[in-house]
Each structure stands twice: as C-alpha cells, then as structure tokens.
Design a protein that fits this description.
389 residues; alpha/beta; Aspartate Aminotransferase, domain 1; Aspartate Aminotransferase, domain 2; 2 domains; four-stranded antiparallel beta sheet; kynurenine-oxoglutarate transaminase activity
Length: 389
C-alpha cells in the first residue's frame, strides 16, 4: 500500500465522531492574550477571590473523612439543600432521590442529557448564537444539530423555531439567561413556546440555566416555574457560575423521575460520582450564602463596566443577565469580528470573544463579548484601553 493510500486508509478507519471540531475560540483568544500580555476579558471566569466563608469552610473540612466516593447521584445533604433552594426560589418541590443529579459541571450535565435521549437520526434544535458544547454533544449521540438563529436583538424568533421543527425533532436546547448575549426570556416568550410545543409532545426541552442567579433588569423565569413544560424539561445549572468557583466543576440536573431515571444510567458510566470535597464544601456553604447578593455584585460590575466605556466608540448592547457584555464595533472597523478581536489583543491589549463563532454559519454583525466577572481594577484598566480606540 502506497504511503498516501495508507494515510487515507487510516483516516477513514479511525475517524472520530467530531472530525470537524477545532480548537476552542476561548483557548485561542486566551493563548493570544498571554502572548501579548493583554487584559483577558475573553473567557468566562472570575479573577477575584472566592468568598472568605467558603475558603474557611474548605480549610476546616479538608482533613475530615470526606475524600471517598459520594453516592452516584450526589451528596445527600447537597441534594437536599438544592431542593430547598429550588422550592424557595421557584416554588417547585423536587424529590432528591428521583429528580436530581449532581454532575461534573453543567457541561457534563448537558452531555449526559443529550446522549441519554438523542438517538441516531434524531434532530436537536439549537438557538444561535449558542454555547459551543451543544452541537458536539448532539453529534456524539448520532443526532443532527439544527441551528436556528435568534433575532438581531438576540430575542427568540418563534417563526424560525416552529418552522425548524420536524417529525425527527427530539429536543430543543434553550439557554436562559443567554450566553453569549446576556439576554433573558420574558413571560411572553415562554407562553409562545408553550403554544408551539403543545403541538409537539415528542419534544424534550433541555434548559441550560447556569446563570440563573445572575440577572439584572428583570427576574429570571425558570422552567421550574412552567407547569405546562416542567414534565418534559431537563434543567441544568452550575455552582461554578453561581458561586464563582468554575474550577470546581460542580453542577446539577433537575428533571422529572421518568427522565432522571434514564440519565442516571449514562451518568454512572461517564463519571459515576462527582468530586467529594467540593460537594461537601458547597453543601455547608449553602447554609450561609445569599444568591441575591451574587446578582447585586455582578450588577454593580456590569454597571461599572458600562459606565466606563459608554463614551467609547463601542456600542453597548442590552445585558439582562450573565456576566457578559456584548458590544458592536461598527464605528471602529469593517473587519470581520475574529480578525478585529485578534487586532484588539495585539494592538490594544484587551481580549474578547467574537460572536460569530457561536453561529453555525458564522453570522458576523461586528459584535464582541467581554466578560466583566473581573476585579474593578481589571475592568478600569481594560476600559482605559478601549476608550483610546
């Protein structure tokens, strides 16, 4: 066999399920930022210290007998406290034994949910711009991702959503509050979705609500609060976002028993159980943390960042929640957003994420995403650079 023939033979024999997936844009931008000493507002993680109370709890329990496997579904005390918080926040009673699952971050929860229910040939609707883990999870499951663009203002376009539904549609993935745009669904949005899905009882909902406790201009409406949808909805959330400990990788799923029973089968052979120390620490910390204070802290940071750059040539887009601010740079450059984001790092010392990478067709409206989950000093320094452009 000739060398070229052998290369093709090996390629097709050992082709992965994700042959077209390339290096994440987050890694690309962070690496470029490091090379040029730029202020990194690209990746979505805080650069300020954790709550001192959480650190004290962690230091105190580190020598306790808490380092072996927890039960597969999660630490019972943590499950109970999540259930209590869900009842307090949304008025939904959740059975800790049959309707909850602790996951290794929300990303693992999303992967588990999709790979439990999406089968070969099934279609899953994904609303663009979308978080980059959804499509690969569908592809690994053997399904077909159907990408549906939001409106230009990043609100849901229900005409497009309804037109995209087919007899093969098994799931719709809805991220609310929305990354990367910071928009939040309204009561009317949910009512419209309910009307559409009433015609399609075969469709499951995967509600990615990892930013549920980071909202500003209007309260977060959770799928936990929607009686017409809750029995067909899997809700994913994340302590990494809510408690700004992204490296701990602790999230959770809430779903009705008939769905959770099946997801636990996949979960047990994917990770079995989640980091025991983090579960114990978070369980105790939930006795003292106030999630409303988390929202207030991030609103102050959002307001600070917006005020700092409001007189720049960047146009601020609405930010209802999350810790991301989207801006338009039409007044500055005609370059595509990927090239402009790289130029911003190399020439101006600030890293962002171009919004086009969150679209299947790379829709480019000259938008960038900045993460404001940073110290005030970091935001001030970044704004000073942005204001000079």
């Amino acid at each position: 066999m000739k060398k070229l023939e052998r290369v093709y033979f090996l390629y097709f024999c050992f082709m992965s399920k994700l042959p077209n997936i390339t290096t994440s844009i987050f890694s690309v931008m962070s690496q470029l930022a490091n090379q040029h000493g730029a202020i990194n507002l690209s990746q979505g993680f805080p650069n300020f210290p954790e709550d001192e109370r959480l650190l004290q709890i962690s230091e105190r329990i580190i020598r306790d007998n808490i380092h072996q496997y927890t039960p597969m579904a999660g630490l019972p005390s943590l499950l109970k406290k999540i259930a209590n918080q869900t009842l307090k926040q949304y008025g939904r009673e959740v059975n800790t034994a049959t309707e909850m699952l602790i996951t290794a971050g929300a990303t693992q929860g999303v992967f588990t949910a999709i790979n439990t229910f999406v089968n070969q040939g099934d279609e899953a609707l994904i609303l663009d711009p979308s978080y980059d883990s959804y499509e690969p999870s569908v592809l690994v499951a053997g399904g077909k991702p159907v990408r549906v663009s939001l409106n230009d203002d990043y609100t849901p376009n229900f005409n497009r959503i309804e037109s995209a539904i087919s007899v093969k549609t098994k799931m719709i993935v809805i991220n609310n509050p929305h990354n990367p745009t910071g928009r939040i669904w309204t009561e009317q949005d949910f009512e419209t979705l309910e009307t559409i899905l009433e015609k399609h009882p075969q469709i499951l909902i995967l509600g990615d609500e990892v930013y549920e406790y980071i909202t500003f201009s209007q309260p977060h409406i959770s799928f936990n609060m929607r009686p017409k949808l809750v029995e067909r909805t899997i809700i994913a959330s994340s302590f990494g976002k809510s408690l700004h400990v992204t490296g701990w990788k602790v999230g959770y799923l809430i779903a009705p028993e008939h769905l959770m029973f099946e997801m636990k089968k996949v979960h047990q052979f994917l990770v079995f159980s989640v980091n025991s120390f983090s579960q114990h620490a978070i369980s105790e910390y939930l006795d003292v943390v106030d999630f409303s204070e988390v929202s207030k802290m991030y609103q102050r940071k959002r307001d600070l960042f917006q005020n700092l750059i409001e007189n720049s040539r960047f146009k601020l887009m609405p930010c209802d929640g999350t810790y991301f601010q989207v801006v338009n740079y039409n007044q500055i450059s005609n370059k595509n957003d990927v090239d402009f984001a790289k130029e911003l790092i190399v020439n101006h010392g600030v890293a962002s994420i171009p919004i086009s990478v969150f679209y299947n067709d790379n829709t480019d409206r000259h938008m960038l995403r900045f993460c404001f989950a940073k110290t005030d000093e970091t935001l001030i320094a970044a704004a000073n650079k942005l204001n000079q452009i």
